[in-house]
User: Fold Glycine cleavage system P protein from Geodia barretti.
Amino acid sequence: MAARALVLVQRMTIARRAFSLSACVRHERLHEVLPPHESFARRHIGPSSEDTQEMLRVCGVETMEELISKTVPESIRSTQELILDPPLSELELVDRISDLASKNEVHRSYIGLGYYDCITPAVIKRNVMENPGWITPYTPYQAELAQGRLECLMNYQTMVCDLSAMDVANASLLDEATAAAEAMALCFRQFKDNEHNVFYVDRHVHPHSLAVIQTRANHLGVKTVVDDFHNFDFSTGTVCGVLVQYPNTDGQINDFTEMIEKAHENKVLVAMATDLLTLTLLKPPGDLGADIALGSSQRLGVPMGFGGPHAGFFAVKKPLLKSMPGRIVGRTWDHQSMPTHRLCLQTREQQIRKDKATSNICTAQALLANMSALYTIYHGPEGLRDIAYRIHRSTLVLAEALRRQGHIIHLGPFFDTIKVTCNSHVADRLKVLRRAREKKINLRISDEDDLGVSLDETVTASDVSDLMWIFGCTRETQDSIVASAPEDITEGSFLDSEYQRTSQYLSHPVFNKYHSETALLRYMKQLENLDLSLAHSMIPLGSCTMKLNATSELLPISMPEFASLHPFAPEEQSVGYQEMLEELDRDLCEITGYDKFSFQPNSGAQGEFAGLCAIMAYHRDRDEQHRKPMGPTAASAQMAGLNVVYIPTDKKTGMVSIEDFKIKVEETRKDLAAVMVTYPSTYGVFEETIVDLCDMVHHYGGQVYVDGANLNAQVGLCRPGDYGGDVSHLNLHKTFCIPHGGGGPGMGPIGVKAHLAQYLPSHPITSTSSDPAKSLGTVSAAAWGSASILPISWAYIKLMGPQGLRSASEVAILNANYMAARLKDHYKILFRGAHGFNAHEFILDTRDFKTSANVDSIDITKRLQDYSLHAPTVSWPVSNTLMLEPTESEDREMMDNYCDALISIREEIREIEDGKYSKDNNVIKGAPHTMKVVTADDWDRPYSRTKAAFPASWLLPVNKVWPGSARQEEIHGDRNVVATLYEALSTVKKK
Assistant:
């Protein structure tokens, strides 16, 4: 509401002016006459013009043009400015986004299909969803500075385990449909052979989940069989798993007990897609004997947002722990024998295990998972149960009214969803839909003659009355319902039956003590204070860094016209969204040189997968499905059914040898499907031979996949579609400013050249521009992925304009080279470009310190925490190194502080090398130093408390961020996975 109020105030301010620049017919002429608005780009880009000149001097060049000419190969540099709209001021942006929002129509949506309207408590909306302290941290790889969100994710995991009655849950997946696909893949992997390659899917699973499963299964060589679950035969020796929906997509609750027993007799795993709120009343999957439970936690306090982002949940029985995809928050001990949270097991496994990875997941939905966890904490077990009961009771009342009016209510029992066949004598289907439009209500329309109604926590008595009227219920029918006693309306209920839940849930104290707003506010602030975010420090993670997420760009997230739309609402209700998506598509095509974008992939890794699938669909359409080899992102490649061929790089320059590459390509020329390149390379350099490389691949009939993770060094300078790319995914949570939310959300839309456009993702419910007959299939639950965060990237482009975007790329390159120049006399810079300059990131080689001082890259990152700084990327792409990417939005002072800290740490290493401190007992090995350690009565360390906690002159108590824990026992945490609050509590007691 606060953000919406700000929008209204700003619009009123604009309206009071004598004229409106955005509305004026002679807009362009007035821009020539009137002074320009203050540029947003000046606020986004960190260094001032004076600092820029000094930084260029430090880098050894005189002008920005000289720096770019020595960094970006001339063969690929763009010679023309991007053809984009002139930049908007922030006030003009508010006016424009409000205009788009007004074109969306927010109706009451009772469509269901896994998406429900809900009430986000204002205290959570304001203090988490709209709070930089929660939305700007990165993935918690440095766990000591992420104890708050890790604790909250542990709450989420415990909530999922409790409600589903499973043993262990991960810290969220992308959505319900992709979670279902991961369940299929897990079942297939368990048999470690190709004989058990049949996966059963009940025909009453959500259609979008089925579509995503089939897309994934086709590339893994798994056959999906869709039928009624009663007909499944598990005795064939070919079945690996089965998926059922509970309650199913039509709302019916089925008894799966016998089916589960038969499946287990044949060692077949059972996955159940379910609904967490329903499980407060309904017997959970774990109690039924299921092996896997999955679904979406969206209705627990997260807006529908036209499809996302939402946290998909995934929980398993203990024996499947190490096969579970995604990230798991675990509990371990720190060096002070205190319990501490960390990521364990699956963290970054796609980079580490490559083609042996269990999935290619690179992110989760941490922010949304935390919102759902806090929603659950706020309401507690009794509050959730009350919400669920009220929804169920409303559904029973509506069903009884329709039944009394002569409509047919299909089989029960049900929770919140009914399937209705209309009585044509009362109100036929067309009349019901016409009345629904009058009331601005959306119902689910099936391909048959039936209608579906799914109720949610926002439903009031007035809403139920409107629904009765829509279906033609007379006043007499409504009066008879009102006169009925609650015990008289029970048909369709599962309460007081074998389906009712009897097991306890959410009994941990955290779910039973923060029910007042004051208590929850303080708890959330306590967690926030344990984390480091962009509000405190730069986060210079090479290849995955965080830049400024401007407040103006974030305004649309809270606007109900964007936040409250159901993803399957009629198309005429999302005109503003469609206009915005078309503009974003057009702008991204201009920026990249591609011809069409799909916004369906809702993470970078999913974008990789979708792009590779598009290439394979292209080859199949040309009857060249034999083409398989490619490289080097192995996890995504094996998911797409490709063979992996690794392409060697020169160990000194980090560049691909064109001669060696030619040999590899010629060896596989008959079967070459694609080559995947990261550009600029992950080593932080623009390779000079990129055009030759692409030409060679195309000569042999292959396609070029350009990883768009590093596009922020290219915007306005060069375009992957021009120098040879056929497809790229873009990390919108990086280059285009979507905040990373402490580990997600992200977005990975894919852009393609025209010949691949018809193979882009399609959707079984929502029409897309792709040809369904040729499309690669469906990769996400919603047609536009996490649509509600796309306005952020749209706004960034509109605010920056063509010159601002180019300047951002130039300054990103300048900032990286400035930091490298300041550090080169203290650390080795591992790779440099052809003229001695890096792109937007660079690698510090710290490998020699292991021998000279027993210090490795991890030790340096822990010591950086004492300087209240976030670590760079560790040991990627080269083991025991640090990769830094400062981004264009960091100013010189911040970069100087960071460089000074690294130089100071180098001197501390030298003190060890000179023998002043031992290799095992020194300020680096003792890092990070917590407040508890520094303020303890006893201090037996060979260095001072000041040296430990305040090692820099600029580091004052006012800006000190204390680590939430001391260094962790990581090996212990991986070998002894403690992933729920109950396990953590029992472990503490044992200790």
The first strand starts at residue 108 and ends at 110. The domain at 144-369 is CATH 3.40.640.10 (Aspartate Aminotransferase; domain 2). Confidence is low (pLDDT under 50) at residues 1-27.
